[in-house]
Fold this protein.
Amino acid sequence: MKKHFHPRHGLLFKIMRLTFYQLVCIGLLSAMAYAHNTPAQDLLNRGISLELRNVTLEEALVKIEQKAKIRFAYSSDLVTMQRAVTISANKEKLSFVLDRLFLPIGIAYRVNEDQILLSKSFSRINEIPAEETKKTTMTADVSISGTVKAESGDGLPGVSIILKGTQRGTTTDINGKYQLDLPDANAVLIFSFVGFVSQEITVGNRTTVDVSLLADTKALDEVIVVGYGTQKKSTLTGSVASIKGGEIAETPVPNISNSMAGKVAGVSMRPNGGQPGADSPEIHIRGIGTTGNNKPLIVVDGIIRDNINQIDPTAIETISVLKDAAAVAPYGLGGANGVVLITTKRGKTGAPSLTFSSYYGTQTPTYYPKLLSAQDYMRLKNEAYSNENPTGTQLPFATDLIENYTSLNAKDPDLYPISDTKKLVNMHAPMQNYNLQLSGGAEKIKYYAGLGFLQQKGMFDPVRYTRYNYNLNLEAQATKTTTVTLALIGSIENTKSVDDAVNATNLFRNGFKYIPIRSLYYSNGLWGEFAGNSPVGILNAGYRKNTNNTLLTTLAIEQKLPVKGLSIKGTFSYDPNQRTEKGWHTPFYYYTQNTNVTPYTYKREISTSEGGAPAFTYLRQEYRKTQTFSYQAYLNYHNSFGKHDFTGLLVAEARNNTYEIFSARRNNFAINVDELDMGSSNKNDFDNSGTSSTGSQIGYVYRVGYAYAGKYLFEASGRYDGHYYFAPGKRYGYFPAFSVGWVMSEEDFIKKSLPMVDNLKLRGSWGKSGNLAGTAFQYLTGYNLYGNAYALGAGSMVQGSFLPNEANRNITWEIATKTDIGFEATLWRGLLNIEADYFHEKRTGMLLPPAVTVPIEYGLGLADENAGIMTNTGFEFSLGTQYKFSNGLKLGINGNMSYAKNKMVQIFETAATRNNPNRSRTERPFGTPFGYKAMGIFSTADDKNDDGIIDSKDGYNVAQFGVLHPGDIRYADLSGPDGKPDGKIDANDETVIGKPVAPFLSYGITPTANWKGFDVSLFFQGSALASLDIRQFQTIPFNNNNSNSSYEYFNNRWTPENQGARYPRATQAPYANNTQASDFWWTSTAHVRLKTAIIGYTLPKSVIQALKIQSVRVYASGQNLFTVSKLNFMDPEVGYTDRETAYPNQKVYVFGLNVTF
Amino acid sequence: MKNTKQIIFTALLGFCLSTISCKEDFLDNEIKNRLTDETQWTSEGNADIFLNDIYHDLSNKWNSPENLDNFTDDNDAGFYWRSYSWKQGIVDPSVNQGSPMDQEYNTSATVSNTTNHATDYATWSAGYYKIRKCNLFLEKITENAANFSETYIRQRTDEVRFLRAYLYSELFMHIGGLPILTKTLDRNTMAKEELYNKRNTFEETFNFITSELDAIVKNKALPVKYNNGDANAGRSTLGAALALKGWLELYAASPAFNTANPPAGADPNKMISFGNNDPERWKKAVATNKQFMDTYGGTYGLFPDVSALWWEKNEYNSEVIWDRQIVAVIMGSNYEQYGGPVWIDGVYYTWGNYDPTQELVDQFAMANGKPISDPTSGYDPQNPYVNREKRFYDFIVYDGAPYKQDWMAKVDTIYTRIDKVKPSKNQIDFGTDDVSNTGYYFKKKINPLKPRGGASSGQNYIYYRYAEVLLNYAEAQNEVAGADASVYSAINAIRKRSALPDLPAGLSKDEMRQAIRRERRIELCFESKRFYDIIRWVVAEDVMNKDLHGMKITNTSPNDNKGKWVYEVVGLNHPHVFHKKMYMNPVPQSVRDQNKEIVQNPGYQ
């Protein structure tokens, strides 16, 4: 049997197609069919939520009447109405609540019309069903009493005490005392109370039985959202981490992907720039396991979606991170990189609750480069000139000019300018967020509605991000067995950036390039230039605006079936997205100054911004529309037979999407009105384009689980998945997973020998999942068509077409084989929580271009092949503790750490690198940087003959790059073509010079404290084992055509007086020898930073009750407050593609207010 | 109750059936943005779309911020990118993908259409990427011959054979012997030996290219020349084929290659030379260039005004033999961004990438035709810019030069002198800013219509023009027969156009050689020709291994300019190292890593 199941027969396909549609249709329609109204006879099935502590029975009955809209009928001599009772019910059936309330105190009830008749169950046997009568023995000859206490020693009121095997019983009074008559000494009493472990006690010949109840950690068992359903944490066999929405909502970041890493084990990230609206980091679950697409799958409310950035953090109920095969298997070919499940908030039964939350604050770059002053710029320039021309006499700047520059500037700032581009930057950009949430529900309908507004301004005026969020969730109990849910999650995002011809990063580049001896602004307020560029000109030009309208719609109908534990559900979702972009470019202007006349004259001129920007005005508009449809049909089963617990799930899912893009442009606007119609009417100034595509996926998910006695857990899950990317016959794959768990804490030997262990579970899983890499239709040979290829004759443009690469008919998905072993433990009743996992993954079939398998003369790109193999191994560890002191102080700390390191096992590599142990890419982590090994900087002493040049005359016989001088970098001659050092630095000397940019190790520590309304929470996040190339404007002098340099370089550069310098000697342009890729430049980005700090105060009840408000909390919070890193001049998490010109990460301080009415 | 359920059940069933019947296969999606193999070759129009892309791949050298002249003694743009490394002697098979001339973004080991390879000179990967397209076209129109007319096949075949020969010639001139591939490689059907080809020798490669060109000329399927207004103007011509052949024959007959001892060192595999000296090779060059003059001389000729040769309105003029088509803005050029004075009318216009050296400027003769080195020429080192030949004023912008293009409202005078009283923005600055470090700019080839940027120029890029044929002929004929009348006539035609008197009669062969080389350097300056000349004449090691110079002009009374303006030739102090191996570029290391059959050029092991 092959590992992957590819159906070959058309018939099977057809059957599956039929089956699928039938399933979906049945799911949707049969649910509707059941959704007819039933007569209101079934009062007892009404849901009720109620929290009453220590009230009299009379009061309790009144409350239940109000909540459940029923009436009780009883005679007042029935029971003592002043008896203390406690009711705790959360969305429970009325019958259950009544059973719990009445049984212990010997009251029977029955429904009559819309009333519930109460009667004394002991004396009026005829009211009790015949079978139960037998169990009830009537004689009463022993009377016992006692006190039920909690661990703390306080009496527990409202504990129910039942005589085992009967309905006879009582509850404790307000002090936890009880009194009960028993038939005989063999009686066994069951003490039970919500939130505590029930105890059975044989009375024996005692007359006093005091009981201490233990808090039941399992009763607080979390329900975790998993793929296509929910599971109890206690019986979960997969590796799933969960974050509460509240933890994330209070972090002042617009997009949750910035605050996930470090919150739970297994999530790491690598930010890539902090521009508002474009600040999504790369998130990795368990590191990087592939050379291809390594993004986790994002699922919002059960539907595969990609909207992590658009979701309002306050609307999030929970986030689950699915990590191992058992957890991701239901996602088939989408799950291999891990899955992030976002569940949004739902309404809760109860009175409407209106919450208003808001924060306001400012953002400051975490690091901003310190650029050279005018004088130091000139000094460095002169030094560089002299370094390169030891005998040269044409010093760029006269020494007296430099020394007198500040006084000259004071006299004539236009002739002797001093400028600082930092002045253009808004170092305190505001950010604000407002949010309104309404939640509530009655018996049959629950609702949640939210409205949010966020605005984040940028470091430059045109840059900003505005987002409106709206969401609505309605859940209706259409019949006693039918639930209908409608969920809408919408967002409108407006992102604005600088002129369309450039990016915000160009402005940072401009900041480096603009030298400090040029006027940024002249004294008359006009702006100047350097090399024909002015950042001011760019800021005064056009714009680029994006509007992104997203709506996620889900309609679900769930129907319980007549078979116990069986239900079906049909889900339909429609996600339309419309994105428009408008790019307006007006020429960049600057003013030139003529100093040959007095007063100086100024003229406006057009800049081309390093040649990138046209000298004419243009407008570009783009419209994209995406629609995604998902259809799901669920069949759910859950039932217990004694100690046997079965769960089953079957889902058929189909998804399809359509995409359209259309764009138009006109050049040469005579009238500066940013509308296409206003542009030139010359057809040569017109341009337009458009295309469309469709896609589809189909999958069948199953999960079966069996648990014995809550101890031995078995689960099998998987997905049979098909995708349109691949050739017919190659489209389907099967991804199974198996997992087991052993809840050791349920074993008697643990219970007896280790009483402090509340929960101890071992679990393991193995399975396969897929990763959709590459792009659609790579299996087809096709010629790409494009416009404006060439001009023939009178200059009219013609189309062109070319073959992009060879096709590969066999192309398919990557396969991840994942193994996970983990354990979870809860000790000392929740005082300590530990979870640890070891995992190993092998990714096969990674898409790689086999380019090196043909000569370069082949002349055509080869199609990717599913040939790569990579392993990824690591561990995760999380630990949490919480303790409440008797004075009310609550302290907690949670920490987690994840380590994941990959290794490329099989890739296409030429013999030249493969056979050289220094250079081999195989067996090394993906993204490992290669370069030369630096041996430090040549010192003056190395120039033995003192001629300023280091060469064979000084005994140095290695050819590096050009002429060598003291102050230049020395490289290790590691090897040559024959594997031996050859006196020449070239590709043969290449070796590993650092680590990939994405960290292998990530960790987070979150200490929290609460006391008398105050809450403090800190979140430290760190990562290590990653490095970054720091060759850039800050470290290389005059990096780009005389650009400015930084003090980082200036203060640490090599000079004859500073032989042990951090950076090489100054040169007027990047010197080839000193700018080679080498370990001289790759620097560790290990760091720990205070990612978030929050201090809040919740107003005491006494105050807010007077205000008729439920709760008020004020807080101050900060993001990226401080960082400890070896890289002390730049953010270790700086955008790694643009680095110094990346939009900086921001330090954010906000002040917030949450009010619930 | 029962009724309701029945109705619902029926509805359900009906709905299911309708859904099933309306979709064939849920996973079938149509690909809408690509042409299938069938469609591509179904008609002449469709096949032409593929051919258009090959034309598109011709290098638009306007857009190369460093043209080949940056790698010679004619130009010094200071510390500029690739040429900065080249001038330090950093040329290595594993550095910059072994392509010392090309911009960083053009040198990836594999090339795709999205890679900007329209500006490179001699990247192995880009070259073979384009050559494969030619081979594929030739194969496909043969395979699908039924879809095309005979004329179409005849014409397009020769057109593409020319393009392929031209593409080979570009690699050949930088690397020497090449694997000659005339069909597309197919890894699924070909044996290893067919897939992994050896380099052909210098001679075999040369013979292949020239015989292809010869065949095209003999076939006469193509027109000799297209004129302005012809619908097919821009396609390959017989003129282009013959001119390229004549040039390659001259190139190969030159001392660097027509020898048993190539300057780069021993060449056992005969990759960079013929391996012997054969005077007959000069004769071939004579014959071909003469054939051009004789056969096509009526169609082609010198354009009267050399300074206006490149202007948009003069496209396809009689002198243009082979050029790349450009249309402003859509597919325009940025040349005006790179060359010419940095500051015009007080405005920053160019990057100042092309700064003529004093060495080049000194080559321009006096108006009387005498070189400035001639004591009788009348040259005054303290007033050097008067009475120079016309081309000096056409091509060079010097201190005090009037500068006026069509787009300018008035004449601007460009000053490069160091003037403390009235400082000029173009003042020589020895490397602080983009302004020239030599005190010179040039204005040859600059589009007078538009100042710069945004691909706003639509001038075609001329690869070969008739003046070059004349110079080729003169040079070859002088080697074969000495300074005969036909040599004089060819050179004097060029001199005459630029108002220079004829060369003095009775020059020896050596004197004539010097005269031709000087003429060639001036006439073709900044057309990316000088690089090949210093290589093939084996003079690169002499002209490159020394400091280049600029002109520093200062006043003896700098604070009031009341003194005398002093002209001083100063060294530029830029390190220059020309290793002998640099007479040929290396084969990129990645090429040899992937094909063990490929041998390296001498000096690069």
Summary: The two ends of chain A are 63 Å apart (CA to CA). Chain A has 15 helices and 54 strands. The first helix of chain A runs from residue 10 to 34.
